[in-house]
Write a structure and sequence with these properties.
Number of strands: 16
Largest sheet: 12 strands, antiparallel, barrel
CATH class: Mainly Beta
Strand order of the largest sheet: 1-2-3-4-5-8-9-12-13-14-15-16
Distance between the termini: 30 Å
Shape: flat
CATH architecture: Beta Barrel
Order of helices and strands: HHEEEEEEEEEHEEEEEEE
Number of helices: 3
Length: about 325
């Protein structure tokens, strides 16, 4: 609980700091950044809250409080033929439901995503480029309603990807990066998860009595091809849309089974501080087995399988740009 409180306080502090926007900064944001050299920093921080309170409610139900915080920041540099783009996306959400001894706290969102891409202009809108991407999460994850067995944790998994290729940037709204030479490292810092072979690492070797004789591997290495695309646009006044898509193929193991990660965000601005947003993520990883309740009877399948993962978050709350 202390870890969750600290995480949310960090998000709130970032949001309060970012609220100090002057008129001069507002003017600078309207300039065409493609024509300006040097560093450019910015981002958005949001805090969304919802509550349900019931008393003597004949239809039944649970009291609940939901809190979701997110922050998306960038720092981009341009000089001559060189560009250096950096982004940091953070997200964390919790749901508290019930009361007294029946209170349960559930995690609803958890994300750390840092990307850094350096490019050197080859000709016109094409750049020789190198990319570094790191992803993980803040806290433990559970397959609710079972909250006794951890299925993910900080640095479990963590993904570190390095790629070299070509970047096509016809405008500040669109970029397409293709890397035929890519190294991907999957890290599982939680040894219990590593022993179970979670997230594609080599599992532990057990004796006939079920005792671990050789611990599971904490790191998995892959070499393959990578494609990353990003598009953003203002669909109409105060309505913005952004989509990011990543594709990775492991040359050495089932290259036809491509890992896919697509994230879309639609944000609508009500006024200077109030916004509504819909965020969707589609994820398929050929190295991750999913255990589900196929028959919807409370009994999980005996055999896990590869499945498309889907996450959708609808949020209305406070948002500040900086």
């Amino acid at each position: 609980m202390k870890k969750i409180t600290l995480i949310l306080l960090l998000f709130i502090s970032a949001g309060l700091a970012s609220a100090q926007v002057t008129d001069g900064e507002e003017t600078l944001k309207k300039l065409n950044t493609d024509s300006i050299y040097g560093w450019h920093f910015g981002g958005v921080a949001a805090l969304n809250f919802s509550q349900t309170a019931l008393k003597n409610w004949s239809a039944g139900g649970l009291n609940s409080i939901a809190l979701n915080a997110m922050s998306s920041m960038y720092g981009n540099y341009r000089k001559g033929k060189s560009t250096w783009d950096n982004t940091l996306d953070l997200g964390f959400g919790i749901l508290r439901q019930g009361k007294n001894d029946a209170v349960s706290i559930l995690k609803t969102d958890d994300k750390i995503d840092f990307a850094s891409k350096y490019g050197r202009q080859a000709y016109k809108n094409f750049y020789y480029a190198g990319l570094l991407n790191f992803k993980t999460q803040f806290a433990e994850g559970y397959n609710y309603p079972n909250d006794s067995v951890i299925i993910s944790d900080f640095l479990a998994p963590a993904y570190l990807l390095g790629a070299i290729g070509m970047d096509y940037k016809p405008s500040s709204n669109f970029t397409l990066f293709l890397a035929p030479l890519t190294a991907k490292i999957t890290m599982v810092g939680n040894q219990d998860l590593a022993d179970a072979g979670a997230f594609g690492v080599e599992p532990a070797v057990l004796s006939d009595a079920g005792v671990v004789t050789t611990p599971g591997e904490n790191i998995r290495y892959e070499v393959g091809g990578y494609l990353k695309a990003m598009y953003k646009a203002e669909l109409m006044k105060n309505v913005a849309f952004q989509v990011k898509a990543d594709f990775f193929s492991n040359y050495l193991h089932n290259p036809q089974n491509i890992d896919v990660n697509v994230e879309a965000l639609l944000s609508m601005k009500v006024n200077k501080y109030i916004t509504a947003s819909i965020a969707t993520q589609l994820l398929y990883d050929d190295d991750i087995d999913i255990v589900v309740d196929r028959n919807n009877d409370g009994v999980m399948d005996a055999m896990p399988s590869k499945r498309l993962q889907i996450k959708e978050i609808l949020a209305i709350g406070l948002s500040v740009q900086f």
